[in-house]
Amino acid sequence: MSSFRIPLVWQMYGHVDVEADTLDDAIEYALGPDCPLPEGEYVDDSIQVDDLLLNQEATHESHQ
Q1: pTM exceeds 0.85, yes or no
Q2: Given pLDDT bands bounded at 50, 70 and 90, which one contains residue 14?
Q3: Around 19, how many Cα atoms within 13 Å sit in the side-chain half-sphere?
């Protein structure tokens, strides 16, 4: 039997509390690299194969 490494992606839902001068500033911070990801809940039925990465890996392996 073969072994396969399948890249998966899924969605999570959560909230982050941000102190900022404006809503736009708060959103910019929340989406930026300095904001830690909050604890969250898995979004039902959101899991899927990362086809782009899977295809890149398959292409890379076929060229070796």
Answers
A1: no
A2: very high
A3: 0
